[in-house]
Amino acid sequence: MRCRTSSSCARWASVRFRCRGLRSAEGGRIFAQLMHAGRLGDPDLLPAGTWPVGPSAVSASGEMYTVAGPKPHVVPREMNRSEIAETISDFARAARNAMEAGFDGVEVHSAFGYLLGQLLSSNANRRTDEWGSGTEGRTRLVVDVVSAVAREIDADRVGLRISPATTLNDIVEDDTEALYGNLVNGINDLGLAYLHVAEAPGQRALTNTLREQWSGALLLNPGTHPEPTGSAALALIEDGTADLLRCAVPCQPGSAPAS
Question: Nearest 5°: phi and psi at 92?
């Protein structure tokens, strides 16, 4: 969601307001998800004179939809040190703006090949400085962003979403178990509200490993594709695989989501 400025985030207050019944009557909580597209952006979708950035000048394969129609992904400009520092500050400021708009917390999106996921990737991140070059370097920005957001709005109002072993948006992750083990170790002592794992099909063993390493609440989006996650997945809570589940129903273009 757009929360980089207080004015853009304020527009979401009406959405939060419409959900207040669930929030108050059912004990619900509403978290805003914060994401930076990184190399998956396009000049047609950005302010005039700006260009997508990424950890390295490496484009993603495939196309994206723009106002001009489908276009191949552009080669991003490699982020410099000042831009990395600015990005960390942007996430923290966006989190503060979300709280001021009335949200209960935020989820930092580090999944499915967007900017933070690109830093974790061994094919999108070819840096040789402290922001790349091995699992510790590739996880550094994610840890720094989450830490900054936790300092800004309190850690128990912050979640982190990851998608270990995903290949979406042309992502390759070498040393996946060591990579995410290092990431979990870097955030374990922050006291976050939860870790949200979007599980890739066939990766239950990796999920179980992360469950053992992670000391807090684990929110799991089980890898049940092509079937939607249903009531049978509740067994994952009963057997201790997860503390919470993320469920959804497929929605075809042009149709209304199921109520």
Answer: -65, -45
Task: Report the alpha-carbon angle 187-191-197, nearest 5.
Answer: 60
What are the residue ranges of helices labelled H in the chain?
6-10, 13-18, 20-25, 81-100, 115-120, 135-153, 176-187, 204-213, 235-238
Question: What is the per-residue pLDDT across 15-42, written as a single tens digit (0 to 9) for each?
Answer: 655 555 555 556 778 899 999 999 999 9
Catalytic residue check, 114: yes
Q: Find out whether the peptide bond into 52 is cis, omega within 30 degrees of 0.
A: no
Catalytic-role residue among 65, 114, 180, 194: 114
Q: What is the pTM of this model?
A: 0.89
Query: Taking the C-alpha atoms of 152, 125, 196 and 28 in order, what is their torsion angle to the nearest 10 degrees?
Result: 50
First to last CA, the chain: 23
**pLDDT tens-place string over residues 215-224:** 999 999 998 8
Whole-angstrom Cα distance, residue 104 to residue 151? Answer: 15
